[in-house]
Amino acid sequence: MTIRDIRLFGDPVLTTRSDEITEFDEALRVLVDDMLETMDDAGGVGLAANQIGLTRRIFVFDTSHVEDGLRGHIINPVWEHIGEETQTGQEGCLSIPDISVDTERFETVKVSGQDVDGNPIAMVASGLMSRCIQHETDHLDGVLFLRRLSPERRKEAMAAIRTSDWFNS
């Protein structure tokens, strides 16, 4: 397993839509392992492939630190909200270090996709896992969570990014 470099805000790969995965092979297994190790090393809850420079539709997640949390991956994810209830909570991103902003997301979603062997998978998720699914799928669509913020919150987040050490180095 290898810890990969995480791409940071401003890298064009983060605003590029990822391509569906059609080959389920040993290289994909290695990618899943590398992504999980990279996410763990960075202290994240989720990591999308374009965050390590690959425009492939896969993300990994780990919500095991919360009760009944899960750890795994979803390939070619598609989600839909269940009901109209939303949640607002702190959301951050490994590609935008040290920025955490209240972000509104749907409370409950149903996601479907595939596992590393190409088998269909699906789940209904609420709370943190629901937020993770929406956030990471946004990444795969080339959308950063900053676009989900109100104009005022986005302006504040952008000001913090512009003055951050990682952005100016």
Structural overview:
- This protein is 25% helix and 31% strand.
- The longest helix has 17 residues, at 26-42.
- The chain has a single domain, classed as Alpha-Beta Complex (Peptide Deformylase).
- With 169 residues, it is of the alpha+beta class.
- It has helices at residues 26-42, 127-140, 151-162, and strands at 46-48, 58-62, 71-81, 86-93, 96-106, 108-114, 120-126.
- The strands form two sheets. A five-stranded antiparallel β-sheet has the order 1-2-3-6-7. Strands 4-5 form a two-stranded antiparallel ribbon.
- The model has no long low-confidence stretch (mean pLDDT 96).
Percent helix range: 25-40%
Q: Total number of helical segments? A: 3
Summarize model confidence as the mean pLDDT: 96
H/E series: HEEEEEEEHH
Total number of β-strand segments?
7
Globular, elongated, flat, extended or rod-shaped: what is the shape? Answer: globular
Radius of gyration: 15 Å
**CATH architectural category:** Alpha-Beta Complex
CATH top level? Alpha Beta
Side by side, the strands of the main sheet go: 1-2-3-6-7
Looking at how many chains there are and whether they match, the oligomeric state comes to single chain
CATH fold name: Peptide Deformylase
